[in-house]
Amino acid sequence: MKGSGSPKAIHLEFSDKYDHDHAEHYFRKHRAGLARRLTTWRELAMARRALAMAGDPDVVLDLPCGAGRFWPLLAEKPGRRILAADSSEEMLQVARRMQPKELVDRVECFQCSAFKTGLDDGSVDNIFCMRLLHHILEPAHRLAMLREFHRVTRDTVCISLWVDGNYRAYRRRKLEATRSKAELQNRGVVERERIEAEFRQAGFRIVGHLDFLKFYSMWRVYVLHKE
């Protein structure tokens, strides 16, 4: 499945923090406390609906897969082929160790960048990309990743990010206005019109979107179709 048609990889500094200890912390934090568990429940419900909107794809690339938080959901469809990739080998090691063996046996894991997957054109039916795009603040970097996704998928993409037009985004923008550049985090809100234009520029049509909590939360999942 590996190909050589991908663009030159882009390195994101935040990804350097995912050593073994941080990867284990990432796995455990989504299971700690009522608030985290409720958030995970809602995210899983959104992801399940997004996959349904994408046509319940047979071959899915989970990228970045992190510690395998969405693997049980992806495995709900019998016979689905699940590819899972992450830029952090430590994340992949934690996922393989912490997830049930019968689940791990269904997943094909490999290390790669979201900007340069190494996969052939049209390798998968769907790219399932949760909790990455809000870390990519440069429009050129977002477009490079989206174009790689357009090359690798033969049908759809499910992708989450932070968007404006809600209470939490308004509060975050006010907070960021009081910080120096050195204090700003490597996460950000994107205007809905901007990101939707970038989707179209990369060659996608928007099938629909799902909001974590409409008018309050920044989290939105888009379902895109390759044109």
What's the short version?
With 227 residues, the chain is of the alpha/beta class.
Provide structural commentary:
The protein has helices at 20-29, 34-53, 71-74, 89-98, 101-104, 139-152, 167-177, 192-201, and strands at 59-62, 81-86, 107-111, 124-129, 153-162, 204-211, 219-226. The protein has 227 residues and is of the alpha/beta class. Helix 6 links the parallel strand 4 and strand 5. Helix 1 (20-29) crosses helix 4 (89-98). The model is unreliable at 3-7 (pLDDT under 50).
Number of strands: 7
How many helices does DSSP assign? 8
Helix content: 25-40%
Q: SSE order, as H and E?
A: HHEHEHHEEHEHHEE
CATH topology: Rossmann fold
**So, the CATH homologous superfamily?**
Vaccinia Virus protein VP39
Biggest sheet features: 7 strands, mixed
Termini distance?
Answer: 22 Å
Biggest sheet strand line-up: 3-2-1-4-5-7-6
Number of domains: 1
Structural class by sheet pairing and helices: alpha/beta
Work out the strand percent.
15-25%
CATH architecture level-2 label:
3-Layer(aba) Sandwich
Task: Give me some keywords for this one.
8 helices; 7-stranded mixed β-sheet; 7 strands; 227 residues; Rossmann fold; disordered N terminus
